[in-house]
Amino acid sequence: DTVSGGGGNDTLLGGAGADRLNGDDGNDLLQGGTGNDILNGGIGNDILDGGAGNDRLDGGAGDDAYLFGKGSGQDTIYYAYEARAGKVDTVKLSDLKASDITISRDAADLIIRINDTTDSMQVLNHFAGDAATGYQIDRIQFADGSFWDQSIIKLQVLKGSDADQSLTGYAGDDIIDAGAGDDAVSGGAGNDTLSGGSGLDTISGDEGDDNLNGGAGNDTLNGGTGDDILDGGAGNDLLNGGAGDDTYLFGKGSGQDSIYYANESRLGKLDTVKLLGLNPSDVTISRDGYDLILKVNGTTDSLRIYYHFMGDATSGYQIDRIQFADGSFWDQTFIKTEVLRSTDANQSLTGYETDDVINAGVGDDSISGSGGNDTLSGEAGDDTVSGGTGNDTLIGGSGADTLNGDDGDDLLQGGVGNDNLYGGNGNDVLDGGSGNDLLNGGNGDDTYLFGKGSGQDRVYYANETRADKLDTVKLIDLNAGDVSLSRDGYDLVIRVNGTTDSLRVVYHFMGDATAGYQIDHIQFADGSFWDQTAIKTQIMQGTAADETLSGTSADDTIDAGAGDDTVNGMAGSDTLSGGAGADTLNGNDGNDVLQGGADDDVLYGGDGSDVLDGGAGNDRLDGGAGDDIYIFCKGAGQDSIYYANETRAGKMDTVKLTDLNASDVSVTRDGMDLFIRVNGTTDSLRVIYHFLGDATAG
């Protein structure tokens, strides 16, 4: 039913069903009865009783009374607005006293619940404008005649309990203790004191100079604007002071807290970590990436300040001082120095954009210089040292260290141990020190220092294809007579005579020492040097040792000297001499001259029209492809042309008998072989498989 009173002081009864009662003008009594009813009081001092059911109530203008009690259901005072000063709207509770109800706040709404029932009344927008905009009810009256006015209502909804609550303060200075439960507490404007109690709480100070205490549990505290005090309490808490000069309280038992992305770039800001019951000797600070870590010695308690060191601790995330119980404090300058202090532990030390001096001490440390011209020393331990930008000096010390010059003209000194040195960009100087070191200068005109006691080092895949690059091996206290050069595959090997010290330049000879892996100068103590041409000449000079000598793509002349040597002509028309010893000569490409010398040698002509002379000894000869000439004479020994096969039509391979005429030799067939003997001697030349295919098989 729909019932309208019109003018006068009316009594409207809804009865059963979902009724709409409109009091209109006058001081009316509206009783909804059973069912979900809508009651509108209109103008006048009305009494609204929804009865049983979930009713919607609006007293309208005037000092209205809303009757509510057990069995009333879940009613709503629905945007009942009147901005008149002095209005008194009352919720009148039938047969109920203060201990029978619980009130709470849900956003801007007031909720009245009857304990141990499902009955409730929701006053929409009650707290809008701190319960002063006209939507509020002004008192809650109990059966014994007592009542709560607006000030008590506002305090009651801020009382904590064991339940999970959402508690929101007002424009004034509020005191809120949420108690147990996982609570959300907001202070609003004013200088508020907010306590989370036990549980996982989220506390927001909002505006004003607030005091936030998380209590037990892992809490989140946000100060908002103003000079706030944040104390996470026990548990692992997230803290953010927001704008203003904030103070973070921390001590033994505080847990593992974080000041989490608390950014304010205001010039002159002063955020402070205040340590309760702790003095400088009780804590240790360190740097982890951009973060500052404060640890309480002998405990697991720690405070991490995220992004503290971003922009060298000037970007707004930094705390500005650490204050101790004795009144002393560390300012930003001291903090930055303290985190670079060396210890015996394994440390990670990062410098700043200034010129830093960092000594890591004992331990396997990681050091990064960042910007500036830094001096970084790993000292003892297996350290990793990175210079960053700037012209840096990196010192590995003892241990197996890794040094990274990064950008700039850097000096890298490995020290004792097997070290890895990477110059990076710039004109760097690399000194592996003692030990077997890996060296890579990177881009730029780099210098590798090497001398007696340097060990067995390698310039390892140091590739730069820049046309005018000038990489130098600088030999300390050594002159040209103190070293020997050799080629091993594509590698250049520099040996210090009379020692086991050597420097191997990996891939030096790739592309005839033009592919970018080559060093370009070897410089001696007397100021003289070998350039690339001299280096190539040096590696083709034989010694009395057993050697492998390799030529270039040009026309090379190589004399291996004594020793059992391997000589490779490579490309070009080369002249290769084995000298004394059992040598192997490989002509490779080109029209080569191969001279075995004394002893039993093996000669391979390769491609091209080659001349092969085994010399004295029992030699094995193979001219390979091309029109080859085999030199043979008295004293040549018992040589073999060994499976020298080429099926090319028109080929012209020749045995040239020097100082011998036809009458001086005997020619016979032995199976498939041609056998040439020098009469009156034991000298012979056997051409294996000469007669295969009637001497046409190649």
Automatic annotation (TrEMBL):
Domain Haemolysin-type calcium binding-related: 109-150, 291-332, 491-533
GO terms under cellular component: extracellular region; membrane
Ranges annotated as biased composition (Low complexity): 551-566
Principal place of residence: membrane
Any GO MF annotation of the entry: calcium ion binding
Highest taxon in the source lineage: Bacteria
Coiled-coil residue windows: none
Signal peptide (from-to): none
PANTHER family given in the database record: S-LAYER PROTEIN
Name of the protein described by the UniProt record: Calcium binding hemolysin protein
Protein's organism: Pseudomonas syringae pv. pisi str. 1704B
